[in-house]
């Protein structure tokens, strides 16, 4: 465009100059001014050059504005195309998000710092029995449940996560509350756990009833076997009587642990009182003193402190940790129990230099009846429920439980007693 404009303008000026020169020559010739013709030619050339440069400058000034406008229009066209593509992508993403939110089984909703509902999916609408126009209204229009409201308020104020359970219209829901990143919003997720809780309750009832029913005949067998041992005169029968006594004792220990688990899962009211950890550790050591002597275990205990809890729960926890460390230790091994005050909490650490646990099994040792080495566990007389009891006691009080272990180098289990009474 610039080149064409320049050519057209220069051509017009050049034609004008030629016409002017032709007219001037004609007049000069007829008036006898031929001698001044060379000077006039030089003047004409000079005028032509001046016109050329003036024309180029004018054209440059004019076309520069057109170029700027053209570039601006090109940029605007590109920007509009990008915005359109982004808008299409956002619409597509929003459509997919709406589809996911409204087809997920869990109820999802979000509130802002003023506790106004800004987002809610179809499942949550059904759970709370509200209509879609709830969006934009205060949380009180959604639910009056103080547990949910308190968790959301705490999340908005402190930014922490919360996990609780509520009952709505006869259904049990697990409620997870968490802050949404880079926003001032808190999200609630409601999962219906009614069926799983009912199944767990039925399992617990069966667990407790079966344990009680088994304990009575086993106690009778143990008594009969003891009477047989007192009246036995045949040495050939001695090993069978001892075998019955050993297996009966193991079964009774297993049933006792099963009943303890059932009691912990039923979460009865707890009578809390200050409990001396040093005293509990000593009682736990005494309970396995025979096994310590049999294996020539070096047992060390240091530290003290107290924890507010049910004394029987603290004893069960420490005894199972100590017993586990001794049973799965080698001949002449070492077991260490250390307690320390870490400021607002007390930490108990039980460590040994026994067989250790492989990394892939460390997440499973707190499961019921899980054994790292099946044959070794049976020889050591464990029930497979000790660490599961420890885990349930920690869950009951909100204490933290951690484990460090390396095969062949031993295991260290730490319980942090948090005072949340």
How would you characterize the overall build of this protein?
The structure is a single chain. The protein has 421 residues and is of the alpha+beta class. It folds into 4 domains: 95 residues; 88 residues, Beta-Lactamase (2-Layer Sandwich); 74 residues; 152 residues, 2-Layer Sandwich (Heat Shock Protein 90). 57% of the residues lie in helices and 18% in strands. The strands form 3 sheets. Strands 2-1-5-4-3 form a 5-stranded antiparallel sheet, with helices on both faces. The chain has a 5-stranded mixed sheet with strand order 7-9-10-12-11, covered by helices on one side. Helix 7 packs parallel to helix 12.
Topology:
Elements: H1 2-30, H2 37-103, E1 107-111, E2 117-120, H3 122-128, H4 139-142, H5 146-158, E3 162-168, E4 171-179, E5 186-192, H6 194-231, H7 238-266, E6 273-276, H8 277-287, H9 289-295, E7 298-302, E8 306-309, H10 311-327, E9 334-341, E10 345-352, H11 374-380, H12 386-397, E11 400-406, E12 410-418
Parallel strand pairs: 7-9
Antiparallel strand pairs: 1-2, 1-5, 3-4, 4-5, 6-8, 9-10, 10-12, 11-12
CATH architecture assignment name of the largest domain: 2-Layer Sandwich
How many DSSP-defined strands?
12
* Rg estimate, integer Å: 45 Å
The rounded distance between the terminal residues' Cα atoms is 85 Å
CATH superfamily of the largest domain: Histidine kinase-like ATPase, C-terminal domain
Uncertain stretches of 5 or more adjacent residues: 374-378
Number of domains: 4
Largest sheet: 5 strands, antiparallel
Q: What is the arithmetic mean of pLDDT?
A: 77
Strand order of the largest sheet: 2-1-5-4-3
* CATH level 1 name of the largest domain: Alpha Beta
Instruction: Quickly count the helices.
Output: 12
Structural class: alpha+beta
Q: Which term fits the overall shape?
A: elongated
CATH level 3 topology of the largest domain: Heat Shock Protein 90
What is the element string, with H for helices and E for strands?
A: HHEEHHHEEEHHEHHEEHEEHHEE
Proportion of residues in β-strands: 15-25%
